[in-house]
Every structure is written in structure tokens, then in C-alpha cells.
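Dear colleague,

Thank you for sharing your sequence with our group. We've completed the structure prediction you requested, and as agreed, I am returning the results in plain text so they can be pasted directly into your records. Please verify that the sequence below matches your submission; if there's any discrepancy, let me know and we will rerun it promptly.
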Amino acid sequence: MTDTLLRVEGLTVRFGGLVAVNDVNFTVHEGELLGIIGPNGAGKTTMFNAVAGAVRPTSGTIRIGDELVSGRPPERVARLGIARTFQSVRLFKAMTVAENVTLSASTVCPSMAAARARADEVAELLGMQALQPIRVEELPLADQKRVEIARALALRPRLLLLDEMMSGLNQAETRDIIGVIKQLNGDGLTTIVIEHVLRVIMELSHRVLVLDHGVQIAEGPPREVMGDPRVVEAYLGRSAAKNLGEPA
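Please find the predicted C-alpha cells below.
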């Protein structure tokens, strides 16, 4: 049986009187790709923030391997092997691609020379060598999102969290990013994807978890989950559910 890499138990996050995530439980196995869906405000990004250390859980535990993650600061969580991208691109736009990725790598590498070498490795892995000397502000959105992935990979993660990477991309750009994610997961990188583009979730995910108003309402294989009446009611709508089988 594949080893469990991430274990989330009883995760609850409250902001005052608002319960953003309510008693969520799930595991992610080594090499798996888990998709997370839900309506706006369902608690998806808040859950990511808790896993990545940006938000302290009100209760519950998060573990990567045998290490307790919950309550630790983001830099410590990153060193434990969890890296993430953001729904809105967060890059140093006046810096070059190489400088952005090197800066990220420097947080886990013993020297700047090692960080630059790691940035070069990631650029080669993602086919981004030609982008290295270009300032991020000069890049189209799709390439900026590739730089976001590169910055996360520079940390040598055991678990990669991708938050709505397809937002704002056209169909060709979406196919390109799907290819990158498939490549990384195919190479063994455990991945969790939050995504609103349902056909992307269907294509990429081994399992899907669904949140609604912070509550976990379904989990399982993509086709099974998409046919769950609770998911149809909360998120898809019946007409959308019928159209899921159409090609992207």
C-alpha cells in the first residue's frame, strides 16, 4: 500500500464567528494527485492556508509524514516539504525569472551558488531556460504562472499545493499548464489542486474532495463524486453535471 504523506484530522478554522473550515478529514498518499472543488467561499483556500502554515487552525491536526505541521510558521512548513502557489500571482515583478526562482531556492539551499544551480535545474525541468533573463513584468500571465510553479519547485517539495492555476488562462494555455502538472505528478510529486475548471479536475485527479460552506460533503473517484447528489446540488447544477462527459 502507498504510504500516507499528508494527514488532516478534524481541521477547523474560525475567524471570529465565521467557521471557514469545519472538521475536515482527509489523507493524501505518496504520488497521488488530489483535486479539491467547491463553490466560492467553500473554504478551499483557507484549508490550503492552514496546510501551508499561513493560517493557524482553531482545532485539528495536520501532519506531513510523521511531522506535525499545524501551528508552525510558513517558512518551517516549507522546510518540512510543503510548497504552494497562489490564486493571484505573487512574484517580484521587477526581478527576472532567474532571480525570482533563485530567491525562493535560497531559503532551502546552503549558499547562493547552490540556489542559482537549483534555479537552473528547475528551469530545465520546466523548459523555461529562455525565460530566465526576462523580467517577470514583461511576461504574459501564463508564463508568470509557470514561474509560480518554478518558485515552488525550487523548494524541493514533497507536496505541491496548486491554487487555481487555470484562472485567467485561455484553452491553449490551460492545456500547457495541465501538461506541466501531469509531468510533475508523473515524476512522483504528490500534488493537491484547487480548481474551478471542472474538466481539468476530472482529467488530473486521482481523487476529488468537495467542500461546501467549510464542510466536507464528498470524497472519492472523480466520476463518482461528480454524480453525488450533494455535489450536484451544492456546486455543479444538474445541467453542468450532465455535460461533464463532453471533451474539453
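Summary note from our side: The two ends are 33 Å apart (CA to CA).

Kind regards,
the structure core
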